[in-house]
Amino acid sequence: MLAVVKKPHIELSINGDNIKELVKYISKKYDIEILDNNEDYLVDIEETDFGKKMNINRAGNLIAGNRHKLNLTQKQLAGKMDISQNMISDYEKGKRHLTPTMAEKFEKILNIPISLILND
Q1: How confident is the model over 11-41, as pLDDT tens digits?
Q2: Fewest CB atoms less than 10 Å from the CB: which of 19, 49, 57, 117?
Q3: How many domains are there within the chain?
């Protein structure tokens, strides 16, 4: 079930037991709309404009996203990899092509499966 709080805009995907009780509780504070799991609402993210844009620089976006997830700056990540901060920036922007060796380093430090990084 997808519950959409109209203002402030929040989307929740709810699974599990006692869903009706949770929705009733949220409804007391917010005006919500319930969208049942209906195929009409489901869209493959790869087919959206966002998904297409993200795939243009998939490796760079994965690197930047996981770096942020680990609360690392580009400079900190560069230090862990013994490369320059500019190189990290270039990888994230897609200006520098990843070699298998560099992809392995990113895999170890950022915990990104190498198959995702090299699947450009």
Answers
A1: 767 778 888 888 788 888 877 776 665 556 6
A2: 49
A3: 2
- Please state, as a whole number, how many other Cβ atoms lie within 10 Å of the Cβ of residue 95: 12
In the predicted structure, residue 9 carries a pLDDT above the cut 70: no
Average pLDDT score, the chain: 83
Task: Name the pLDDT band for 108 (thresholds 50, 70, 90).
Answer: very high
Interatomic CA distance for residues 71 and 90, integer angstroms: 19
DSSP-assigned states of every residue in 24-68: HHHHHHS-EEEE-S-GGG---GGGSHHHHHHHHTHHHHHHHHHHH
Does 74 share its domain with 100? Answer: yes
Does 63 lie in the same domain as 105?
yes
Residues 27 and 56 in one domain: no
